[in-house]
Amino acid sequence: FSCDNIRNFSIIAHIDHGKSTLADRLLEATGTIKMDSKGLNRQVLDKLKVERERGITGNMFYQQNNLRYLLNLIDTPGHVDFSWEVSRSMVACQGALLLVDASQGVQAQSLSVFHAARERGLKIIPVLNKIDLPTAQPDRVKAQMHSIFGIEPADVLHISAKTGEGISDVLRAIVERIPPPSGETTGKLKAFLFDSLYDRYRGVISLVSIQDGVLCKGDRIVSCHTRKKYEITELGIMHPEEVPTAQLLPGQVGYIACNMKQSSEAHIGDTLHRVGYAVEPMPGFQPAKAMVFAGIYPVESNDFPKLEESIKRLTLTDRSVTIQRESSSALGQGYRLGFLGSLHMDVFRQRLEDEYEANIIVTAPTVPYKVVYRDRTAVVSNPTDFPDIVETSSQVREVQEPIVKATIIVPEEYLGEMMDLCFEHRAEDVDHRYLGTSGEASNRAMLTCTLPLSEIVADFFDKLKSRSSGFASFDYEDAGYKKSNLVKMIFLLNTKPVDALALIVHRSAEQSIGRMWVKKLHKVIPRQLFEVPIQAAVGKRIIARETLSALRADVTAGLYGGHYERKMKHLENQKESKRKMKRVGRVDLPQEAFFDILSTR
Ligand code: GDP
Ligand code: MG
């Protein structure tokens, strides 16, 4: 194969618009995989689900006009949290299929992936999917695509990834519209590392895009990032599983195995070159930054070593998670993990619970704040490290919080509701426009605004969905840091602070949040033999208070003369919960109380 016969592309789409289905169809139409009677290839579909849909990279052969082409599909994750991965995958592509659901129309992530692809200079092929649906409105959606992206309606392909209609047009368009990669066979080897997997048997497998030169088995290479040297033990293409080949040519995408022992050696975005032939590393590649942090603790503190092992194992396959040991007087030993976003956190948590096979306590998610001191700036993601008082402290100049630029696309009739939602979450620079001719039924509107990241990490997405009857789509991008009036709120039980419960909140919300939390605590903390004040405080100010009245009766008092077995059972239960008691000050708290409080945040 020469470069001229290679096409590198990805499929970009809002979630559920049919990316995986189309990927499967393309692999099937080129004979790369075989479908079962239901039209599904379980293996590939399962693989797609693995690891938060990390996306398969599939190489396929396609013949047109007696010419054989090698088409390389580099799949990209569809979710906002992984936009960094989207752009890294795009480095290996020259074109992208922009897939839009013909009944749903353009959604928030259609926009963000479109912009990412255009910034990278990719040739975009617009594709309307699901035209088999009775609710499909191709003309209307094409008008939207014209108004939002400036795409000519005549350039839009009509397909159904489900029935297979139009798939051959897609293959033809890939060959005809996407330019071949440029690269010199004779040039010095330059390979871009864009993904890596961990194989139990072969160790680290890296996915690379050859920019220049030819890579062969046995070649000795160097990482620009670490300067470590390796020897290629195996290389090949993904067809769709790994198929060894003798070499990888410029413009080709494939996998390599070299003697990398640890996943951490495979730096995403790294450039590899031949030993003795240095090249300029690929520019402008920022690694992902963790933006959402949470503490993770075992429910049973004895299980910490097991939890630790599970966390270490999972981070082998998902290295965008940052990890740090942490301990808390209430929750014991644990970890503070950093994630790309809240969805990323949910996915990881799910995987952790599966792997670890037990319940874990995940503390309220926080974002990295910047505390600007006289002489330095500290990034703080743990409330414990946040200054107790900002305004009166001469050391702290100001605090800043990360903000995002948010885009919401929603049917016009929900626009007001969405604006209210944004304002409730401290939105600024709110703006909107209509996508299409006004007056039309169920016209779409696009709302943009800036929001503090902290406002969207908890339940913003759930509220957005429920208050728009599921119709709103949402995406956001990093918009830097902004000065903010933030305070640290602590909770006191019997005048003793409970560190695991500390929060960083905006001043305007301190009253309502303080009151809400003391009420919740009052509900879940069992009464003690003495009166317990439950307080929320900011600095020295008490914001809210509830009092837990004293408990006097003996637990077994009412059981005297009653059934002996019942009494024994009661004592047994009591013993059971004693085991999980945590002592805060003089107050005994069942671990479950923390679990209740922290999991409902
Ligand atoms: P992804 O999230 O973009 O990967 O979307 P999927 O490929 O998982 O598809 C989302 C849903 O849409 C699935 O239930 C698919 O079966 C369905 N789907 C995908 N393409 C079509 C299509 O052309 N027609 C119809 N009717 N359904 C489709
Ligand atoms: Mg999918």
**Largest sheet, if any?**
6 strands, mixed
Give the radius of gyration: 28 Å
Class from secondary-structure proportions: alpha+beta
Give the percentage of residues in beta strands: 25-35%
Query: What is the end-to-end distance?
Result: 56 Å
The count of DSSP E runs of length 2 or more, i.e. the number of strands, is 32
Main sheet: which strands, in order across? Answer: 2-3-1-4-5-6
The kinds of small molecule bound in this structure are: guanosine-5'-diphosphate, magnesium ion
What does this protein look like?
GTP binds at residues 13-20, 75-79, 129-132. By secondary structure, this protein is an alpha+beta fold. It is built from 14 helices and 32 strands. Helix 3 (83-90) runs parallel beside helix 4 (108-119). The radius of gyration is 28 Å and the shape is globular. 43% of the residues are buried. Bound molecules: guanosine-5'-diphosphate and magnesium ion. Guanosine-5'-diphosphate is lined by residues 13, 15-21, 78, 129-130, 132-133, 160-162.
Notable traits:
globular, binds guanosine-5'-diphosphate, 14 helices, 34% strand, membrane, GTP-binding protein lepa, mitochondrion, binds magnesium ion, GTP-binding, 601 residues, alpha+beta, mitochondrial ribosome binding, 32 strands
Give a brief rundown of this model.
The chain has 601 residues and is α+β, with helices and mostly antiparallel strands. 26% of the residues lie in helices and 34% in strands. Helix 3 (83-90) runs parallel beside helix 4 and helix 7 crosses helix 8 (342-356).
List the helices and strands and how they pair.
Layout: E1 6-13, H1 19-29, H2 42-53, E2 57-64, E3 67-74, H3 83-90, E4 95-101, H4 108-119, E5 123-129, H5 138-149, E6 157-158, H6 167-177, E7 190-199, E8 203-212, E9 215-216, E10 220-223, E11 229-238, E12 242-244, E13 247-248, E14 253-258, E15 271-274, E16 292-298, H7 304-317, E17 322-328, E18 332-339, H8 342-356, E19 360-362, E20 369-373, E21 377-380, E22 396-411, H9 415-424, E23 428-435, E24 444-452, H10 453-456, H11 460-467, E25 473-483, E26 486-493, E27 496-497, E28 503-506, H12 510-524, E29 532-538, E30 541-548, H13 564-579, E31 581-584, E32 587-590, H14 591-599
Parallel strand pairs: 1-3, 1-4, 4-5, 5-6
Antiparallel strand pairs: 2-3, 7-8, 7-15, 8-14, 9-13, 10-11, 10-15, 11-12, 11-14, 16-18, 16-19, 17-18, 20-21, 20-22, 22-24, 22-25, 23-24, 26-27, 26-28, 26-29, 29-30, 31-32
The site of guanosine-5'-diphosphate has 16 residues, from helix 1.
